[in-house]
Write a structure and sequence with these properties.
Blueprint (H helix, E strand, L loop, with lengths): L5 H8 L5 H11 L3 H21 L5 H13 L7
Helix pairs in contact: 1-3
Length: 78
């Protein structure tokens, strides 16, 4: 059985790509447990990433994080 590449599944779960391709992939899912599991996992991942993108980091936290990394790479080697 031929399987689609992971990038194609990422597009599929996000509703991207040509309608005919998405239809073929949906048919494939009806017969392939391996790809069904992958598509389910990618769907969950997509939901988490979308929720994460909606979070706003307070300015003070962002400044502290930048300072932490800036101070950890001192130019004097110490």
């Amino acid at each position: 059985m031929n399987h689609y590449a992971i990038g194609a599944w990422v597009d599929h779960v996000r509703g991207l790509g040509a309608a005919t391709t998405r239809q073929c992939m949906a048919r494939h899912l009806s017969t392939c447990a391996r790809c069904t599991r992958l598509a389910a996992w990618l769907t969950e991942l997509d939901a988490v990433v979308r929720m994460d993108a909606e979070l706003e980091v307070p300015d003070g936290v962002a400044r502290a994080a930048i300072a932490l990394f800036t101070n950890s790479t001192r130019s004097d080697g110490g």
